[in-house]
Structure prediction request, 951 residues.
Amino acid sequence: MTAQTPPVPPFRDPQLPIAKRIDDLLQRLTPDERIAFLHQFAPAVDRLGVAAFRTGQEALHGVAWMGPATVFPQAVGLGATWNEDLVRRVGEAVSTEVRAMRARDERVGLNVWSPTVNLLRHPLWGRNEEGYSEDPALTSAIATAYTRGLRGDHPTYWRTAPVLKHWLAHNNETDRSETSSSVRPRVLHEYDLRAFRSTVEAGAVAGVMPAYNLVNGRPNHVSPYLAEQLRTWTDEPLLVCSDAGAPSNLVDSEHYFDSHEEATAASLRAGVDSFTDHGTDSSTMTGRIRGALDRGLLTAEDIDEAVRRQLSVRFRLGEFDPGADPYADTKDFDTPAHRALAREAAEQAIVLLKNEGGLLPLAEDTRIAVVGLLADECKLDWYSGTLIHRSTPLEGLYDRFGAERVTFAEGVDRVRLRTAGGMYLAVPESGDTADAVRGAEGALDPALLAGRTDLPPLTTDATGTELALVDWGEGVLTFRAPDGRYLSVAEDGRVRAAADQPGGWVVQETFRLEPHENGHLLRHTGTGRYVTVAADGVKVADGNPEVFELVVAQSGEEAVAEAAVGADVVVVVAGNDPHINGRETEDRTTLALPAHQERLLRAARAANPNTVLVLVSAYPYAVDPVELPAALWTAHGGQAAGTALARVLAGDVSPAGRLPQTWYASDADLPDLLDYDVVGGRQTYLYFEGEPLFPFGHGLSYGEFAYENLDARVERGDGGEDGLTVSFTVTNTGAVTADEVAQLYVRAVDPSVPRPRRELAGHRRVTLAPGAATELTFRLPLSVLEFWDVAHGTPRLEPGSYEVLAGASSEDIRLRTTVEVEGEPLAPRPVRERGLDAADFDEQRGTEIVDRTKVSGDAVTPLGGASGELIFNGCDFGPGVTGMSVEVAGGGSVEFSLVGGPVLAALTLDTPTGDPYAYTTLHAAVSAAGVHDVHLTLRGPLRLARVGFSG
Prediction:
C-alpha cells in the first residue's frame, strides 16, 4: 500500500485569504505558544514547522548592526534631498540587502524598525540625525517614499515590513523615560500625528513603535491614540512593537503601575503586540503575561488579537509561502548600483548655504588646503552598518584634484601627558595584533559589545607618546595614538589604545581634564572614574588619581594656519562625532560650534580669506558665516561622503540639497527642550517670528532659476470634491545643468485662530539644462488649509482668502497669489450644552496637560502645583446660565471669570483627594449670557478635567 500525502494545512495554502490562514494557524497554537509569540524573540513551533521569528532589524540608512553593508547618508541627510524618488530607491536597496544578508545570516530580521518620523521640532534633540524634517508634510513624503522602497511593489508579499518610530511627540533624550510631553489638541492633530498618519495611509507601513516618553502624563506604551487614531487610518493590521526595555519602564522608572503584570496587561490592551524586553530571554515577559491572565487583567482574546497582528506581518513577508515569495532568492548586496546610489544620495544631500564672489565651484588647478577635525573622517552613527567602502573629504579631494594639489592639516592638538613623577603616558607596541573594526561581525544588540583586552594597557616612560587631542565641546576629549587607535577603557578598567573610533552604547573613548592643584585629573566619562598609574599599567579607579600636566607639542591652530597660508582655497571641514555630545540618550546643550573647531576656523580665515566652511553634522549649528565667502552643510553622508563633497566643490554636480529644518541664529531663539507647544511657543518655521540664520528650505545652486506664471484655483476633482490646483513655471536661466527644489506654501490671510506664517503644501525637485523650463502642477486637497477646531473637536476649513506662495525656500518667495475658499466659519463654543474640556483651551500660561485616567482622557494642572491660566475663546452661554461645575482632583481652587471682568466664582477643593485620579465635582452659582471669552485660573496641585454649565 502507498502512504497518503498528509493534507496541506489551510495556513500553508497561498490560495486562501490571509485572514483565514491566520485563523487556522492561530487555532493550532497552544495558549503557551501564543503567549511566547508576544516577545520580540518568538520561538519556533517545531510540531507545526513554524520557524522562530524576531521583530526588529535596524535599517535607518542602511542595514545596521549586522556587519558590513552599504551605508547611505543619515536620515536627516536623506530629508535634505527633498527627493522622494531617490529615497524610495534607497529604501529598495536597503531592503534588498536585508534580504541578501538574511540568506546567509538568519539573525538578520525582515521586520525593519525604520524610518523615524519624529519631527525635528527642536535642533538640540540628541536624535536629530534620525528624523527627516521639522515639517510634517516633508517628513511624511520622505518617510512614505522610504517605506515604499522597503516594502517592495508586489501586491501580496513584502520585501521587508517597516515599523515607524517613535510614537509619539518624542524630541528629548534627557530623562526620556520619565518626562511627559504636554501636547495640546491642535499640536497633536496638526503637527505630531500628521507625519504618522499620512505615511500609514500611504499603505506601506507594517506598524509603529511607541516612544519611551509620556504624552500628557501617560506613557506612550499605553497610549489610547493607538486605538483611537493609528488603527483607524487603515484597514490593514498594524503591528505595534515596544521599544527596548520600555515595558519594564512602566513600573521601574515611570512608576505608572504598581506591578509588571498590571503594566503588561495595560499595554497589551492599549495595542502593544510585541514586547522588546530582557534581550533574547523571553521568560520574564511571558511570565508577566501569564500572571496578568491569572489575575484576570487579560483575556485570551486580548492575546489572540496581538498574535493575529504579528502573524499578519509574517504571512506578508512570505514566511509560509517560500515558493511564492518573489523576494526569497534576493542576492543583490554591495552592487555597483548600490554604490552609485550611495554616491548620488550623498551628492543630493549637500546644501550650499552661502556662496559669495563665485568662490565655488573650484577651478581645476586650484591648490587646496583641506583642514579640520572631520577632514579625513567618515563618521558612523549608532544606527549605521559597518563600512565596506569609505571616502573622506580628504580622499575625495585627492581623487578629484590630485594629491599634489591638496595639503592637509587635521587641526588636533599634539600633546603628551606628564605624571606628577615626571614620567609620560606611553602607548606600548601592539605587536602583530590585528586591527579590529567595532561591529564588523554584527550583533543583535551592539550595546553588549565589549572593548578589546587583547592589547597591552598604557604604561609610563621618560619620553611618552605624543597623542592627538580633540576637544569635542563642553570639555569632552578624545585622545588618539599615532597608530590611529583611540584611548579606550575596557571592562577590566585598563586604558588602552584600542578603538578604531569612539562608539558604543556607553562611549568608552572620552575623557575630561579637571583642574587640580598644579595640574589636571583625567576623568573617564564612561565609568566616571579617574585615570591612575599603577605598577601594572594605566587604568581607571575610584582612588589615587594621577595628577597630569598637559604638554602641548603643537596646537591645531598652528598646523591649520601653516597649511592654509600656501593654498588658493582653504576647505575647513567641521562638525560633530555622532557618538559624542548629541546622540540617543544625550541631548545637546547648545547650537554653538565647539570652541576647538571655532579656533581652527578662525585660524584658517586669518591665514587665507578664501576659506570655505563645510559643516558635516547631524544637526544645525549657529555659525556666523558673515566673514566666510562660502559655506556648505551635509549630514554624515555614508560611504561616499568624501567623493560626493569633492564633486560638488569641483562643480561636477550643482548642489541642490535644502535645509529640512530651521537653522536658528542663537540659543536665545530656542524654546525649552520640553516645550512641545509649537503653536503657543512659536516654534519651527511654521510659527517662528525671529530671523533665522538660514530658513527652512534654504539651499543655493551654481545655477540660476526664474519662477513665472503662477496660477492657483479651486476646482472640482474627478472624485467630486473641491481641491486646490496650483501651477507655475521654473526656468534654468543659468549656464549649468542643475537641480532646483521648487517649494509651494500656503497661508491663511485673516485666520480666526493663530495659524502658521506659511506651511509647506508641496515641493518638486527637478533637473533642468540651461535655458530649459518646466511647468509644475500641484493638485492638493483642501484639507491642506484646515486646522483643528478645539471648540468642536474636528478639522475646520474656514472660508476666506488663502495666499499661495511659490519659491526656493520658506523665505525666498518668488511668486504669490490669493485664492478664495468656501468653508464653514468657526462657530462659538456651545458651552451650555457641551461644557468645556480643560485641555481644549485656546491659550494657556503656566499649565501642563496630564492624564485624566490611566486609560484615556486629559486634564490640566498648574506647573509645579503653583498657578496657571486657561483661555477659552468664543464661549456661547445662549440666553444665560446660572450655575457651573468643575471636575477636579488633588487640591486647590479654580477661579472663573469672563475675560476683562471680575472673578465670578471660586471653587475650592477644601479636602484634597489623595488619589490624583479620584475626581470630584464642585458647584457654584454664576450668571453669564451671550458669547464671551472665558478665563480660568488654577491654583495649587489640582487637576481640572472639565467645566460644565447649567440653568
